[in-house]
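Try it yourself: sequence plus cobalt (II) ion, in.
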Amino acid sequence: MKIAFPNVKNISYEGVRSKNPLAFKHYNADEIVAGKTMREHLRFAVVYWHTFRGMGSDPFGPGTMQRPWDDGSNSVSNAQNRARVAFEFIEKLGAPFYCWHDRDVAPEGKTLAESNKNFDAVAKILKEEQKRTGIKLLWGTANLFSNPRFVHGAGTSCNADVFAFAAAQIKKAMEVTHELGGAGYTFWGGREGYMTLLNTDMKRELEHLAKLLHLAVEYKKQIGFKGQFYIEPKPKEPTKHQYDSDAAACLNFLREYDLLPHFKLNIETNHATLAGHSMQHELEVAGAANALGSIDANTGDELLGWDTDQFPTNIYLTTYTMLTILKYGGLTTGGVNFDAKVRRESFEPVDLFHAHIGGMDAFARGLKIAAAIRKDGRLAEFVKSRYASWDSGIGAKIESGKTSLKELETYILKKGEAAANTSGRQEFLENLINEFI
Ligand code: XUL
Ligand code: CO
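Structure, out:
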């Protein structure tokens, strides 16, 4: 095969003084931070959809990307060639993982049988390339939103045949994920939501979605796939309201339908902000429920209200993200997956490298800063001491469930007034964070 990136050598760590745009300044894969290598902490993944299929089209114009290796056709051979290019890119970048939707890697045929055949033909190359390079599949997923058949959703479609089609597609995508040794499988509710409640039986749609996920859990057991299942929250786009609107809504749905033991969450930064939350908020909600699985690392634009999927470069964002991830024990099966795309104006192949290097360096800095803040201990100590009234006396009694409203009334009647509050010290804490940035 011809080399797709002839002017790019393997990206290496050159340290903060380097001026080389094709080198890492902070991501040093083998460097130990808080007991593990950076590679093990961050588990970076490259996405197939934006990086190898995104052509930069927007509602006002067609794609602009220069991708000289791609003949623009929908042929299996073009898809196979693209797979080899993808691995050249990921290998040169030094990311240990990648992720795909079924339809990113192989063209959809006229029938499901034809699509499955195409998928197998490209999966064969993916398997060869994984073996050659040691790069692993972080997760696979099925695209249940692009084809017009999914106009009313997939699992939540009013058309039962469409549900069946989605189920068949999930079955195949899970089989290929399993075959490629995938560490996980993700469900993002592409069009699972509504545009108007006037035509929507919400209760029935949610029950159907739960059915679909239960069928997937059952099939996972049947084929012996041990990877982690994830749900990826997003509040809107493409629908007006997506059922998996945020981490709390996903957890509630999973609990209501007895699915929680089988799923963790894949939290995406730009989806969090679309939901009106910070990334850290979503991670805390997931972490507190023991469901923090993986992240789709990107960022939105503060002034734009849609899913711009930009590469993350903000050190505060990566620091807060890594602080919460470390607090909940780190990424185990999950990873830092760059669900991000270069801007339409950044159309040269080398821009793909700049984008990923920037994101990886930003996360490496976030990791090092978060580890230093944790090692320093003042932040955690402050939070711990803020709740000291719960460690003994009446607080401990309430927490252990050994009290009643009557007893609490007697307690306060005797005291006359609650103990004095202390300052929340927000500015002090913000300054403390800045000591480490
Ligand atoms: C869409 C999105 C998806 C999922 C995978 O906003 O984030 O690409 O990550 O289906
Ligand atoms: Co995503």
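One thing you can check immediately is this: The longest strand covers residues 136-141.
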